[in-house]
Amino acid sequence: MYSASIFLALLPHLAHALPGTKINKRSDILIPTTCFDSNTTLNEYFNYNYPWGDTHNGAAIMSSANAVISTPGTLTLNATYTGGSDYAYDSGTVWAKQAFTVEESGGLDFSADFLAPVVTGTWPAFWLDGVNSWPPEVDIAEWKGTGDISFNTFNTSSVVTADDVYYPDPTEFHTVKAEFRDENGSDVSIKFYLDGTLITEQYASGLTGQPLYLIIDLQMEGSSGSPGPTGTTLYEIKNLEVVSQNS
C-alpha cells in the first residue's frame, strides 16, 4: 500500500517525462496592466508619436506633451484645436517598443479598457500595423465619429473585412479584447470582443510570422469627418495588457 501511494504521487511527474505527452502552452505577459501606472512605466513600454513620424492621415500633429499619465493607471491622449492651416490639432500617439508576431501554432491576446470619443471629427484607435509593409493592418478598435466602434482587418488595400457595431455609452469605459491565433502556419484568425461579448471573427491572410507595431492614437478629422471639435478632446486607456500564447 505504501509503495502504491508513492507511485500515485509520482504519476503527474512521470506524465511530463513521457514522450508524446501533451504539454499545455504557457502564457507570457509581454505588456502588463501596470504599463500606465507612471511616466516611468509608460516610457518603459512605449515610444511617442508614430513609428514613422508625427502625422498620419488626419488633421492632427502628434506631440509627447499630449500623451500623459493623467492619473496612475490611465493614459490620456488629448487633442487640442489650434486652427493651424496645415494641422488644426495638437494631439497624442504612442506605439509599443516591442513588435508583436503570431508564431506558427501560437497566438497573441490584446486587451484594454477605453473611454473613447465618438463625435464627428474624432478618430481614436487601437491598432496593429505591419513593420515591414502595409498591409497588414488590424484595427482592434477604431472609432470614426459615427457613434459606432469598428473592427477591421486589411489583407490588401482592397480586400478588407470591416464590422461596425453600435458603441454603448461613450461616457463610460468599455473593454475591448482581440485574440489572434495561427490557423495553418500562414493565416491568422482574430476574435474581437466588446465588454466580454464576442462581436465578430475575421481572418488575416499570411499574417503568421509578420512583425506588427501596436499603436494607440487620437487622430482627428480625416476618416471621421469634419469639422471636428474646437475645444479639447480626451481619449483614455487603462488596464492594457498584451499576452503571448506563442510559447
Automatic annotation (TrEMBL):
<feature type="signal peptide">
    <location>
        <begin position="1"/>
        <end position="17"/>
    </location>
</feature>
<feature type="domain" description="GH16">
    <location>
        <begin position="34"/>
        <end position="245"/>
    </location>
</feature>
<keyword id="KW-1003">Cell membrane</keyword>
<dbReference type="GO" id="GO:0004553">
    <property type="term" value="F:hydrolase activity, hydrolyzing O-glycosyl compounds"/>
</dbReference>
<dbReference type="InterPro" id="IPR013320">
    <property type="entry name" value="ConA-like_dom_sf"/>
</dbReference>
<keyword id="KW-0732">Signal</keyword>
<dbReference type="GO" id="GO:0005886">
    <property type="term" value="C:plasma membrane"/>
</dbReference>
<protein>
    <recommendedName>
        <fullName>GH16 domain-containing protein</fullName>
    </recommendedName>
</protein>
<dbReference type="InterPro" id="IPR000757">
    <property type="entry name" value="Beta-glucanase-like"/>
</dbReference>
<dbReference type="Pfam" id="PF00722">
    <property type="entry name" value="Glyco_hydro_16"/>
</dbReference>
<dbReference type="GO" id="GO:0005975">
    <property type="term" value="P:carbohydrate metabolic process"/>
</dbReference>
<keyword id="KW-0472">Membrane</keyword>
